[in-house]
Fold these 4 entries.
Entry 1:
Amino acid sequence: MSLELRASLRTAQKNTDGAKVLFERAFGEEKALGYREPPIYIRPVSETEGAAMMAAGNWADAKAAYQRALLERPQSGLVLFGLAMVHEQSGDIEAAAKEYKNFLSAWKDADSTLPQLGHARTYLAGHLAAN
């Protein structure tokens, strides 16, 4: 957790190269924990890295982090939503729409009042109607 926190702080300080090094070390430490149910470390480091890189406007690294998180947790709604947000914020409308559809499919049984679901539906309604 210390590595992840330090990496997040470096991102906030606009030192994304230094942050990426620390996120990579945190990812390795997370993997070394091994598999347990429930997990010892509940939120994958790659999700935090994706959010941090997105906040820094580093779309390529944010996308890579979320894709790595998907390898660990396929069809994770939180990861799919993050990936969709990266595409939306970087202006890739087609990819964002695809990922929002994947997200809605993954969370088809979730509480319909969740803000992530509302955002995805609103985005799709606005962008699919325009095409």
Entry 2:
Amino acid sequence: MEIEFQDFELNEEGKPYSIRHRSYFFSKEVVLFVKGCQYKQVFHSLFDQLIRSASSIGANLVEGKAGVSRKDWKNFFAIALKSANETKYWLCLIRDTMEVDKEKVRALLMEAEEIANIIAAILINSKST
């Protein structure tokens, strides 16, 4: 399965309209952030968990789109929402225990919050349909 991330429309803030595209770019930013950090072994698991939870958001959205039923779709989107919230937890823990670029972490936290809000809105709106 190949996913096309080359052609996408941007909103007025310069972010992709598609939540799948947006979560992909967020995951990519998290990976690049971790790649640029220098840390002691004790912090390895924090960064590992951060990458796992951040990349899980988009992976579950993509899986949900390919779901075989509406229930399947909702379950994958709910997992994506949980992963977005978990990502915020790891970012806060890294921010508060390490010497990292606090502004970059703040930006990542804001994006994780926006993604979580979008996914939550999609789930809430899907219950009324």
Entry 3:
Amino acid sequence: MFIFNSSIGKKFIQSISGAFLIIFLLLHGTINFFSVIDSFTGKFGAPDGLFQKGCDFMALPIVTIMVPILALGFFVHILYGCWLTWQNIKARGGVKRYEVASKAAADSWSARNMFVLGMVILGLLVFHLTHFWAKMQLQEFMGGEAENPYLLLTTTFGNWWVLAIYLLWFVAIFFHLCHGFWSMFQTVGWNGQTWFKRVKVIGIIVAALIFLIFAAVAVNAFIQANFLI
């Protein structure tokens, strides 16, 4: 099929899977940010806190069913990202730089290092899953009881070196999204001079919003663990 055999088709799949992951990050980040709101309303750790309610929502059967679909989205995005990078390397005759379609894109550091950023994100994703998913969603999937989400936040981010690693991860996600967002729209044809500039700005805003949400959650949990609890 054209969508699987052509370069444009592969980039389209990469774009769609990337869009799905951006939506997930916004949803996941919003629910996590409820913990920051709880710290200002005095309900951090309370069973009726917004973050606890958000976690209860994530534990619903319909959301649990979505986990394998999310995993498939990650797998497809990673697989096609590696394949496109390999195709670019072969087309250029060696490891030079990430292939881009315009000078504005070529001047972007994130555009030239998408594969490296992706590998950093993937590696730290495994690190993240051992801290949260394995102790919450996986426990419930196996018929057990999930750990207290507030306690998981404070015990995880209470260590400064863990906080530093996570902040590094969020920075990598930021740069990956800065290029990935507008590249996604470019793939579907929104690459005119007017829309190109607008989409790039929107992409930076979305990437910055995702970074700030997750960074705020991590830093707030560190403060809660070391100074307020």
Entry 4:
Amino acid sequence: MKKILLLFSLITLVGCSQFSARKDQSQQITFKSSIPEGKYNFNLVSFKYPENYNDKINFLKNLNNTLENLNAIQKENLNLLITNEMDIDFNSLFSTGWLDKEILGMKIVEDLEYDEKIYLNKFNIGVPTEAGENQKLLNRQYFLLLQLTGNEALYNPEFLYTELDKSLLMEDVLLNRKSLIENINSIKKNFVYSDSISDDKKIIYIEEKNRVIETLTNKSVIFQNSNINSGFRVLPNSLVLFPGNENKKYLSTEDYEFTSSIVSVVNFEELQKITNTSASVSKLASWERKKRIENNTTESLELRFSNWEVK
């Protein structure tokens, strides 16, 4: 009878120990980039991105000036929420150097698509009467570039503009644009993309609080609004951080504590303070589960009780 009780106790202890180990290990993670164990905070900067061209130009100019004045550590820790419109414009800048309709003005006339010619011909401006169709389009391109740079009053309806005129007009813009592109590129690794543009992205933001995310298959880092949780949790394919912590259940592991916040910014000068209290989200991208440690509890318990006898 004593041996039966001993065997039952052994099975119970082994079962509980193995179950506890599995539960604990399911949330244990490590990082290829060797992030030391500890506490980290991630501020996600949210801007209201303008809709019209001139406001976008002012926004990008202010962003560029701000990035120029941030030190290397502050730029390293600037995590920027990317909307659909920002994603489109930034990709255009990275691939062509141009923004919005600028590319339409800088195209060689012979390369214009049918829809682009329709758009240019809508400009109700004077053009030389003796000019051919391509020349008229070229004049309208030049007017578009003047309009985009706020200099449409300089347009001369009797002048035959050339491709060189267009290039000279945009030369200064391109020189300033080079600095902007380099500065945006320097923080690109910390972009947190909107869920609607995140198909091939590793770090994304999901605003919907009750969205089911367990089915995501790529190894993502997800920031998701939640009414219940703060901190973070580990899913099979995703590391999920819950911004905010007021009156919420805080989740962490024995090795790491992650907090995060969405910070809406109006004044670019606020970025300095925000980045001083933040860590870089790109550090999270190298997360992986710790390798499961084989449980030797059965063997150790057997050894422990193998010679035990009640006298």
